[in-house]
Amino acid sequence: MGRRNKIYEGKAKILYEGPRAGTLVQYFKDDATASNAQKKATLDGKGVLNNRISELIMVRLGEIGIPTHFIRRLNMREQLVRQVRIIPLEVICRNVAAGTMSRRLGIKEGEKLPRPIVEFCLKRDGLDDPLIAEEHIHAFGWASQAEVDEIIGMTLRINDYLQGLFTGVGIRLVDFKIEFGRLPVDDGHQVVLADEISPDSCRLWDRETDRKLDKDRFRQDLGDVAEAYTEVARRLGVLKENKHPNLAVIANNDEG
Ligand code: TYD
Hints:
Layout: E1 6-9, E2 13-17, E3 23-28, E4 31-34, E5 39-42, H1 46-63, E6 70-73, E7 78-82, E8 85-86, E9 89-96, H2 99-105, E10 112-122, E11 131-132, H3 134-139, H4 145-167, E12 171-185, E13 188-194, E14 202-206, H5 216-219, H6 225-235
Antiparallel strand pairs: 1-2, 2-3, 3-7, 4-5, 6-7, 8-12, 9-10, 9-12, 10-11, 12-13, 12-14
Helix pairs in contact: 1-6
Bound molecules: thymidine-5'-diphosphate.
Thymidine-5'-diphosphate is lined by residues 90, 92, 98-101, 121, 129, 175-177, 201-203.
């Protein structure tokens, strides 16, 4: 790993040059940040859990026809992905009011929304990822009309699928954030799902108790963050038992 070229280091992941042209290795760190990196911690095992959870979700989404950057998991902390040019948008889909939507619109956290709502934020840490309208995306050329339409369509399909997946394991999908990239193809490019989908980028509540099983445990100092991520992984079947974060219990004999 030491000899590989680092392409980019973000808050929770590192991207390395991949083994073949057009590929990257996505490494999941244990670092957690919130409030635009003003709050930082290391959570033992988080990277391993997010790697597994995101793998499962990307594979399943691929199976229902959502194009993704995911190729395969390499080991406990790394996955091989296709190199894409990230579209500078954080695409948020919400089913239940929480976080900034509750604060902005005065809707009580936990209130079910009349229908899924897709929002766009500009991916720019220096500005705290501001909420933007589709108008801004078109006017500033961040994505074309056709790309935005495709992104909204894919986001709603992903939401439908993930709601079902999580409902099946007793979890309410409150909201999530995804990112898309442009993958070069023969005659141009294709928009594909990129980055990760994990408890770092979703709000996940236990359906019976409303217990938060996501990064809000870290943002709001609720404690037991890694235990909650472990619980999500266990329910999704990527951990054999709910022991945190004894990485020996990762299912399927991880090779890494
Ligand atoms: P939101 O409520 O807008 O922001 P915050 O987390 O600051 O209260 O977030 C909606 C969902 O999207 C939530 O699950 C967190 C996720 N998200 C990210 O993972 N990264 C981001 O940069 C943003 C803006 C949201």
